[in-house]
Amino acid sequence: MNKRIFFVLVVLMSCSLIGIILVQAYYINNSLQNTEKQFNFNVRKALSYVSNIVENEEKEDYLRKFNDLLSNGSINVNDTTAIINIYIKEDNPDTNETVIYRNGILEENYKVSSALFDIGLDSLNVKRILQKRETEIIENNSIDGSKNLSSMLARLSKLNESTRIALETVYKDKAYLKPIHKRVDVDKINRLLALKLLENDINIGYEFAIYSNDLATKIKTQDFQLNPASTFSVPFFYNENDKSNYRLLVNFPERKKFILSSILTMLILSIVFTLIIVIAYSSALYQLIKQRQISEIKTDFINNMTHEFKTPIATINLALDSIRNPKIIDDKEKVLRYLGMIKEENKRMHAQVENVLRISKLEKNELNISKERVELNDLVEDAISHVELIIEDRGGHIETHLDAEKSSVLANETHFTNVLVNVLDNAIKYSPEAPKIIVTTELAGNNILVHIKDHGSGMSKAAQKRVFEKFYREHTGNIHNVKGHGLGLAYVKRIVEDHQGHISVESEKEKGSTFTIKLPLIS
């Protein structure tokens, strides 16, 4: 796939994923706000309901008691179209006072000259309806016998509408003077509030109180705390001017948890599905990038493999052409030399094919690796003997410090020798000058460590992380400047891990590399 097209696809997929996440977040936030608005509306509706019910019950109770007095004859009745007067007498034993309350509706008649209105009549009759209220407080020891309630009461024939209006005014005036804790009780408000909240599917704990001019009254629950930001309130007990000094307040300690719980299922499902999409997208993107890298590495591998096969094949062809030359074919020494070259090049190609096959078998778990007790120090010396001639041919040297007193390990002699030879061969290949290699062994607890250090070109930090990957080779500008196809160290890592060991590398550019192999000792 073209690199530009791949980049565009990744950008489009990423933008789409981010868009989906933002839409989900917006939808969840919008649902949360709507749920909170509905909750607030239901709470205020419940508070208004409780306020109205309590006030109406108190008013109706007052009017019913007054009507009962009229019915049983406790109040003498008289009616006139001109005046409706209501007198209420209350004795207060605590203060030794008598409160006399009067509320009257008065009708005043006037005659007005028609000249004011120019309507052709001598005069006009005008009526004015007045309402008059007054309260008189008298100490009981100053009241004489001539002042009695019956002489002060107006005679009412029935509880008609005008009387009812007057009585409601009386009720509001009288109730206003009464302390709030004598008008309602906590249990009644609690019962009404709980019932109404439950009707609106709000079944969480709450605390409530009644405040008078921003001051707490005796009507409140034990744990109520005023918090202006989260407390709901409505007016309580209006007076005749439709104003109220009292407010019914309620707050919900677990309000946020309740609102969240109402959309919890949707929230969890949205998060789960979004995570699945993110994980699937990340995995797909990772696989795409990985496949692209593998494709590039395989292309590199094929180019290297072709190059490495091309040289031996060309050498073999030249050697065969030389042998067929009539001047050479009779020269036994030259023929043997060319035959030796053909054998060596053929051996080289065979080794490369074997490397590929070994990796393939390792991945399919088809490589049979039998292990036995061996001395690791002996395996190191054996591996060094395989590469000594190559090092000497390049004018280098190898230094050994096999200081580990115990070196018995459980290993496959052939495969582990190949491991050490591969690492040594890698040190030789990446030494531009004459190779200088130091091999040491040491004990580390119940393990033995083998260090193979070179003074070659080294590698970058990025290359150190990927050096044991199959087909990986660090690019140096010319991919054929060092022979190989990125399989040697991959094979090394698989064999070491199969022996319950570990291999690592430390390197610095232009200063060389140190490969460390750790294997468990056996007693």
UniProtKB/TrEMBL annotation:
One of its GO terms (molecular function) is kinase activity. The keyword Cell inner membrane does not apply. It catalyses: ATP + protein L-histidine = ADP + protein N-phospho-L-histidine. SMART domains: HATPase_c, HisKA. It comes from the Bacteria. Pfam families: HATPase_c (PF02518), HisKA (PF00512). Keywords: Kinase, Membrane, Phosphoprotein, Transferase, Transmembrane, Transmembrane helix. The chain crosses the membrane at residues 6-28, 258-281. Residues 304-523 form the Histidine kinase domain. It is an enzyme of class 2 (transferase). Its EC number is 2.7.13.3. This is histidine kinase. It comes from Olleya marilimosa.
